[in-house]
Amino acid sequence: MSFFFIANRTCPRSNNNISQLWFQIDPSGNLFCIEECTNNTTYTLNLTAKYCAVCNYNCLKCEGALKTNCTACDSLMYRSHNTTDNTCPCNSGYVDVNVALCAPCSNYIPGCNTCISTSICTTCFNGFYIIAGTCQCTTGFLVTGVCTTIYGCISATNLAGTIYCLACNSTIYYQLVPANHTCVCMSGYYVDINGNCISRCGDSILADG
Description:
The chain is an all-beta fold. It contains no helices and 20 strands. The protein starts with 21 loop residues before the first strand and ends in a 10-residue tail after the last strand.
């Protein structure tokens, strides 16, 4: 195994005698001199050892390896430059998941508009309300990220993206069918196009209305 100390090596100055040349390592591990760091600006200058090193994943351009050394951010990664601390935080509505590309908050919290982490939402989209950092449906039940109306159901559970009703609203004449966890109209009542259970004359069944 061989070792080298690049701090003890020097590169000549460029022809204009203004900018110092720096070391960069090629894929074989060999050092060579360049006028400025390259590779689509994802490299930076390590001033101590004088070689090009990879920026923190947050940065597009940087002056060091820390996430607080960013000088430019990649808008295609949904990041913007914070000049106060030289970081590249995710844009509103997106969350940092430890890679360059920020992810939409709604990918991790259904109905979430803005968040501070993958588990804590700060605002929800219309049709949702926030409770304990999550988004709940204003009406209906959450099924694979969408609020779905299940007529007559007042309590339900979501298993693998399928809603199973646990209790039905008897005050509007619904009753539970335990076999398939659905709500149906009680005997003597019939569901209309609006999901209401209504009685019909002439069926020989006594019912309200």
